[in-house]
Structures are given as structure tokens and as C-alpha cells.
Known about the structure:
The structure holds three protein chains of three kinds. Chain A is mostly helical. Chain A has a single domain (47-81, 92-311), classed as MetI-like fold (Orthogonal Bundle), CATH 1.10.3720. Chain A contains eleven helices and no strands. Chain A has helices spanning 2-8, 36-45, 48-65, 102-138, 140-154, 158-168, 174-201, 204-211, 216-252, 264-272, 279-307. Mean pLDDT of chain A is 82; it is low at 1-30. By secondary structure, chain B is mostly helical. Chain B has two domains: 15-73, no CATH class; 87-300, MetI-like (MetI-like fold). Chain B is 76% helix and 0% strand. Chain B is built from 13 helices and no strands. Chain B starts with a helix and ends in a 7-residue tail after the last helix. Chain C has a domain at 300-521: Dipeptide-binding Protein, domain 3, CATH 3.10.105. Chain C contains 18 helices and 19 strands. Chain C has helices spanning 2-22, 63-72, 120-131, 149-152, 202-206, 208-213, 259-267, 285-288, 311-314, 316-328, 331-337, 355-358, 373-382, 402-417, 431-439, 458-466, 480-491, 495-512; strands at residues 43-48, 77-79, 86-88, 91-96, 101-106, 169-173, 176-180, 221-227, 231-236, 250-255, 273-275, 293-305, 343-345, 391-396, 423-428, 447-452, 515-527, 531-532, 548-549. In chain C, strands 11, 12, 13, 16 and 17 form a five-stranded antiparallel sheet that branches. Chain C has a four-stranded mixed sheet with strand order 1-10-9-8, with helices on one face. In chain C, helix 10 packs antiparallel against helix 13 (373-382) and helix 16 crosses helix 18 (495-512). The chains are: A mainly alpha, B mainly alpha, C alpha+beta. The interface between B and C is large, with 74 and 83 residues.
Amino acid sequence: MPDQIEKTDPGIVDAGTVVVDPGLTPEPEREKPRSLWDDAWRDLRRNPVFIVSSLLILFLVILSLWPGLFSSTSPLSCDLSKSRQTSESGHPFGYDLQGCDVYARTIYGARASVTVGVCATAGVAILGSVLGGLAGFYGGWWDSVLSRITDIFFGIPILLGGLVFLSVMKDRSIWTVVSFMILLGWPQIGRIARGAVITAKQQDYVQAAKALGASSGRIMIRHILPNAVAPVIVVATIALGTYISLEATLSYLGVGLKAPTVSWGIDISSAAVQYRNAPHMLLYPAGALSITILAFIMLGDAVRDALDPKLR
Amino acid sequence: MGRYVMRRLLQMIPVFLGTTFLIFVMVYALGDPVAAMFGDRAPDPSTAAKIRHDLNLDRPLLTQYVLYMGKIVTGDFGEAFNGQKVTELMGSAFPVTFRLTIVAILIEIVVGISLGLISGLRRGKIVDNASLFFTLVVISIPTFVSGYLLQYFLGVKWGVVEPTVSSGAPFGELIVPGLVLAGVSLAYITRLTRTSIAENMRADYLRTAVAKGLPRRRVVTVHLLRNSLIPVVTFLGTDVGGLMAGALVTERIFNIQGVGYQLWQGVLRQNSPTVVGFVTILVIVFLVANLLVDLLYAVLDPRIRYA
Amino acid sequence: MRGSTRAKWVVSAAVIAMAATACGGSSDDDKGDEGKGGDSKGIVRAYWSDPQNPLEPSNTNEVQGGKILDMIFRGLKEYDPKTGAAKDAMAQSIDTKDQQNFTIKIKSGWKFSDGTPVTAKSFVDAWNYGAYLDNKQLNAYFFSDIDGYADVHPDKEGAKPTAKTMKGVKVVDDTTFTVKLTQKFSTWPSRLGYKAYSPLPEAFFKDHAAWLKKPIGNGPYKLESYVKGQGAKLRVNAGYSGTDKPKNGGVDLKVYTDGNTAYSDLQAGNLDLLDGLPAAALTNVKTDLSGRYINQPAGIIQTISFPLYNKKWGTEKAKKVRQGLSMAIDRKSITEKIFQGSRTPAKDFTSPVLGAPGGYSDGICGELCEFNPTKAKQLIQEGGGIPGGKMTISVNGDTGSHKDWADAACNSINKVVGNDKACTTNLVGTFADFRNQITKHEMTGPFRAGWQMDYPLIDNFLGPIYKTGASSNDSLYSSKKFDKLLNQANAEADTTKAIQLYQDAEKLLVQDVPAIPLWYQNGDAGYSDKISNVTLNAFSVPVFSDITVK
């Protein structure tokens, strides 16, 4: 009985979210029924974690768009005679091995690193959710084929894949790195999305909506999506951090972004071997990386909590 | 159940072929390995041609793949450029990496699940925030940084552990590398467990268990934890393959001649027998681990049954 | 019970998984005690990394393979560890009257470590093996000057050899053989210290696979055990007849994945000798090791070569740009700040280890190798500026710290031309890919080139790299004047005159700038307090036989 097998296929429970139906709690007092999104937004506006992390992210975005606002020194104008010197007036973070200003490089490095992190995560989340969601929602052949394709890409270790893929690419721009991350990263989200969708599909309220004659599209967007999105958000926010740090590892292996791009990853990788002589070279880009990751994880947590009616 | 396992095993075949072909194409795209064998000198054309011919490099890609797979079926994985058989290389690399992976997974399970459990039970409290902070630090430091730092401070400066792993790779020497390797996955597991615990805390069966007056310890371990581990187990399953291959950086820093290191060398020298051979085995590990995970669900969640 | 059946399935699946992954099982040869303690008497524990090719003398072209071959083989000549001068080792005499026909007499009484004698045949067989095309030896070109090479090793792709042995090499008796070269070559005998010319025992030809597992040679050490990926144990060869008998009990070569890792082990006392220190260690090495650190000139020069085949770089006008770029690089600062003095700014195209008698002269490059921002800018402008306004320096990103110096060189150039983005480093992912782009002549901008001498003579720094059609002429530089001078020098019997001719040729390079000399790479090594008397030879390989162990 293949059909039954699909239903009980363990992938179902991937996300481990045993969702309790939010539709059961009637809210008769309201004139216009509030959607889950409205609820979430009301929740978020009052959540200090959300406010702090949003402000931080807003700051990072501004930093990425207009780094010139924060630093008048060019990250590329370097004076070798100042190699590895610590801070002095006008250059609060000191200099790196090449005698470039670490403060300027940290400011200018935000653009590449944040772009890589955000774009790779967004791409992975979209591609993974769509393919995983389709597999989960339609089941049957869709599921079999999509799941096997997921496995094929999942089977290639990401670091190895990156090493080969980026060695082949002669021009390693931000977009090459992002597209490689999406290409090999989506199966992770895909599996989770698939499991979450299958779980949500079997809930009573979805069955009820179906019985009431709701269209597939409506069911997907109104009922399944909000319930399947939580596990995706949790994994995606952590993944964002790992993508930024993966960029650093790729630089360490010699296949990272190419100059004249400035990125935290490039700086961290060249600072790593200098940790004994010039810890400041490592401290600032790594600190910036940590703060960025913190902001996104906090945001992810807050959004996830807000979208989960059980936690209200 | 037996039929289910059979079906899964059969499904592995297309995945196996797909992945190996993909990696074969990628290594092929890296280009000709022969020029590099001559170091900084230009290769002399006749020797280079002879080497290319003997490695089948002068054939079309598809023929190369078929010839290669044909040999693999008979157990011949080819040779690395230093004349060593790839099977021999795998025989020495896999056990070492296997041990390293076990250490890493144990650390992930013990530390990750405990941290996740505690912070899930005390959401929003100091413990929770501390664990978030810890997770953050672990994720934001790339392995090559944490590897060098731990090696220097623990191994060289304070002399607490051996800075490198000797050729036998005993478990004792693998603890620090295992910790470094486990890093990022550890963070995932902590976050996943925390989320999962927080959700299941509000489940009906848990309320029932508490209402029944069961001791807290039993409620947490048997009812809460068992049900919350499913996503964690899924993650671990998919992580095994990633850990084994992703150990590349860790293995390089701690002098472990394992799978990751050999793969890296294979890529650098553009030696497709090494890369494809190792990935072949990794894909099998990955697929079997996934199957195991799926079977484990049935143990963890009594609602799941395989026809 | 349902639960237990499930568990059983899980267990059996686990067994399959173990079987599938364990593959070779745990290896039994793990039990070695190497690396630990170091109290086995008189043994030096030294850094090594796995040789990239099978350990045949004519197939080994990189330092790590060379290191072990140096210990287990002695050729006709050897290079003096201090001066680098070639002197007789196994050779009794090498005579010639016409610089083309040589009669070689070897010393009798030498034995391979398996007890068989070293005869003239051992040499002749080894050379024929090395030259024969079907053996695919990477160093076959070392025999290309011998008459009959073309028959055993046709140059054309896909051509089949028409003979198995070279007609120019003949055994006369047990201790004598003759060599006929294709043309006059006065300095040919001093090449014979190179490991490709080593003799091979009969065991090599009888059971090749077994020999490769455990090579047998005639050197000061013999191989006791060799485990690929782990290391090699070498012990004193009691039957060695040379003069440089080892002063220690043996050497354990330990394979490392990375130089930084080996450095950690050296600091922790698990390793005695590390040659070729990682760049990151250079700042601290003196204090870390309380002065147990050597840093001395070696026969290695680093250059930036230009793709003269490319329209942008090959023109007469671009020559001015090339000259300007050479003057735009602040070699002194880079060697000090990036390399911590382990490199010396270059003043010619060879190496100071040659010494004045070997052809080195610090006045050859002159102004071209001096940092001069004003003149550099002027020259670049006269040449029409950097072609296309932008250039890259290509280096391989997988080994060494090439990125660091390339970045610094670019920054130096950028400052001179006043544009932050004019020059950038192009990191090529793998060495293999890097070499492919070079040998296929696909480079569109200057690229890193390094040259480690095969033997300490000036012609080795010129002929193979800059002669028209030479094997390492990656820039495709071609100058009739230069070629002519080299040919004259090769045929010149008088060494002083020959060197004068070589230097005249070298001066042409300063005018034409097919490459920019950057710096001479030093050999460096750090060692533990357990050993002393550590020196490096002219090839920056440790002189193992001199090391004493406390």
C-alpha cells in the first residue's frame, strides 16, 4: 500500500513540530477575524528581542549600503610599514598584515558578508521551501522524484562541493559564492519544509478547509504555510550564520571571494594564523560576524515564537 | 517493515548514481591533472600524453564515467598519483575519520541535547540566554580559527593535550579535534532541541503525564525528551556524512590523515579516482545513515509504523 | 513484541552500515610507537609530507620526495652542503676530451643496502629506465642530452619509442661506462649529483612493486619501514662506503598534513626538525625555539612572469610598463614585513648561493630591481599605463602564503599608480589549475613563477626558463641574441669565459623583462633542543648525516 507508506514516511516528522490547531480557538468578539500574520505582528511589536534585533539588522543594512558614512578611510589604501600595528588615533582598530586599516575593512566588509549570508539563506529558504513543500503537498510521484533529487544534492558534502565548484569558477564574485551555497544548501531546508508540510496537511483544520471546498492555493497559503514556516525559520537563521562563516572557511582554503572585494571572511582567514602576534586583526571582523549572527538568530527566534499560537 | 527497507534500498540506486556522476563531472571540470605533476616545469608532451592515455583522460567524459563505474563494481577504485591504491587509502583513512566522527557525534549528543533541554525547560531565563550566547560564539567562529586557538592554547601553551594526533589516532587524542569538528552541528542540535522541547512542553500528553503525578524526572526523560528527539535524530542522520567529509579543515589542523584530508588532497591534485572513490563511500554512509534514522523514528514515535 | 522487532531491524541495519563504512577495518599497523617520547637512542624525528609521486629517482621532482632520496641514494657526484659545488661521490673520474664523449669510472666496493654491488650497469640500467617513454618518468628530460634519447623518448605526442635503450650509454666493464651527448656540453658532469642520475639495484627491475613499497639504495641511510601517509623510518646503512657517514642513529620522517601543525608539534617537543617553516611562525620562531632556528640563502628565486604571448603584455610599448612595474614593487618592505626577513630582495635572475665563481653577481639587475616610485610611474605612463587599466597577479591559493605577498606587491603598485583597484591578486584555487593555465598559455596577466635550482650553476637559472622553447619558458620569451649567447656559453670549455657569456645573456633579461625578479627565498628550519649541528644544504634540505642527537 504505497499510499499509506508515503503518509507514514518518517520524513513527515522531520521538523518535529506537532502542531496544535490554532483554528479551534474561536475569537467571536472581533468584528473582522484577525489573521495569523496580524497576530504575529501585534506580538512582535511589543517584543524587545524583536526590536533590538531589527534595529541591529537595520544598522547592518545601512552599513552595507553606505559604508562610506562610517569610515572615511579606504579599506584598500594600505601602508605596509604599519603592518600589524595596534590602534592609534584615527585608526581605532589598528592595522592588518598589509597595513590596511582594520576599522575601515570591518566596516566595508559588512557588505560582502551580509550579502552572502542573507542572499544565500533567502535563496536556500525559497528554493528549499518550494521544492520541499511541493513534494510534501502533492506526495506521490512528485514526492519520490523530488526527494531523490534532494538526496543527490544532499549527498555531496558542502565543503568539498564548494572546493570543487569554486575551483572551477575563474571569477569568484559574491554571486558565484551565493549560487554555490544555494545549489548545495537547499536540500537541508527542503527536507524540513517537506516534513512540516506533510504534518500540517494532516491536521484537522486543513481537512476541514478542504471539506469546505477551499482551493489548493488557499489551503497552502492560509493554512499550511504559517504552520510549516516555523521550523524553516529556526534552521534558516542558524544557517545564515554558517553561510557567513563558510565564506571565511572558503577563503582559508584559497577559493573564497577575490580581491578587491572586502569581506569579513577574507580578513578572518588571513588573521587566523596571526592570532599570536596581532589578535586585533582577528577580534574585530570576528566580533562583527558574531553580532550579525546574533541579530539574525534573535530575529528568527522572535518571529518563530510570534508565529506559533501555542506559545502565546 | 522488510518491504519498506527493501524499497528504500532500491531507491538508493538512482541517488547513488546521480551523486557519483555529479561529483565525477565536477572533478572532470577541474581540468587536466597532468600538468601539475611536473611541478613548476612544462610537461614534456609525449610523457604527458602517455600518462593521460593510461588514466583514460583522453576519452570522452561519459566513457570515462562508465569505465570508472565498471571498475568500481569489481572493487577496483584506481590509484592515487603516488601509486597508492585508493582502496588502500580508504582503508587507512575511513577508520580514523570514523573514530573522529564518533567522538564528534557523542559530544554533539551529550552537550547539545543537555544544553537544548535545559534552555528549552527554562525558556527566557539566564540559562537559556547563556546557551544562546554559547551557540552564537560557536557558530560565529569558523573551525579553522577555533582549531588553531585550541591547538595553541591547550596543546602548546598549557600542554594539557597533545597538539596533534599521532598516526594511530587513539580516542583520547581525538577529543579536542572532535570538539572543534562538532562545533557548528552542536549549535544546531542545541537550537533544535530547545525549540522542540519548548513546543512539546505544551502538548496534551505531557499535561496528562504531569497530572498523573509522575515524577518530574520521568516526565522529562521518558515523555518529553523522547518525543522531542525526532528532529534532532533527523539532523544527526544527515550530519554523519557531512561530518566525515567536512572534517577537512579539522583534519588538516590536527594532522589526521582522514577522509576529509584525502578528499582535499584529491581535489588539489585533481585526482578523480581518489575524490570519486571517497565520495562513493560517503554517499553510501549518508544513505544508510538516513535509513537508520528513519527506522529509529519508529522506536521514538510509536505512532509511526512501516508497512 | 512489536518494539523489539523494530529494534532488531535497527540493529541489523546498523550492522550493514558498519560493514559498508568500515571497509578496510582498523589497520593493524597503527601500533607503531613512532612520534612519542623520542627516547629511542640517537634518532632524529623530522618533518615530512607525503611524496606526490612513486619514489623512483627519475620520477621525483618535488622537495619531500627529494628529501628521502637524498638519504638513501648517492650518485656519481654530490653537492657540497656548504658551497654547493659538485664533487665526486661515487665517481672515480669523469673524463672527456671533446666535451661530448665522457668516460665515467666509478669507485669499486660500494654496495646497495641489500648487499648487491653497485656497478656501471646499475647506472646504465637506471638511466635507460628513466629515459624510456613507457615508464612515464617525470624527470626523463634529464637524459635528453644523451645520444639516443630521441629513440627511447620521442618528443611528439602519441609517438612510440623505437628503442629500449639509449645508444649513447655503454657499459665498458664493471666500473666503467661511456656516455655520448648529442652536442658539446662542458658543464654536463656537474649535473650528475641530481637524484635522477642515481644507480638502481637489480631488485628494482626484478620486483618493481616490492621495491616501491620499500626502496633500496646505496646512500648513507637505508629504509627500515615506510608507511604512506604516516612516515618512514631510516636507519644508518652500515655498508655505506661514502665519506659522509651519519653521526646519528637514524631519522624518522613523520608525515604532517600542514606546516603549522608540525610547528605546534615542534614546540610541544614531539618533533625535532622542521624545515620550511610556515609563514605564520616566522614572527615568533626565534623566541619560541630560543634561537634554534636557521635562516640561510637557498637556490630558490621567486619571480613574477609576464605572458609575452598576450597582446597586452608582449608589445614593445608594454616593455616599459613591465620595467615600471618592477620598480614599483617595494621588495625590501615586503621581505621584512611579510616574510620577516626569510627572503632577500633579488638583485639578479639567479641566486647568491652560486657565489661569484658559480655566476652570481649582485650588480646585474641594477636600477630595475630598486624601488623607485617616481621613475616607475613615469615608465608605466610612457608605456601607456597598465594595459586595460587593471591587472592581476595570479598565484595559487592552496599552498604557501602567496596571497600575502601578492597582495603586498599589488598594494605597492597601486600606490605608485595612484589607484586602489589597479592591481589585484588573482587566487587560483588549485596548483593543478594554476599550472594548467600557465602551460596552456591562457594567462592574461602576470603570474607567480618560482625556480629551485637543480644544480648550482648559472645556466640552470637561465636555459630552462628563458631560452626559446625551453621546458619552463612559461612567458614564451624568445630572443635570438639570448639563445646565441647561451649556446656559446654551453660550448665554452673555459669556465670563467662561460660564466661571462652567461652573465651577458642575463643582462639581456634585464632589458627585456620577461619576468621581474622578486626575492631570493631562504632555506629555513627550526629544531628541538634534543638535536644539534643542524645545517641546510644549498637546496634547503637538512644535512641529516651531520645532525647529532643528545
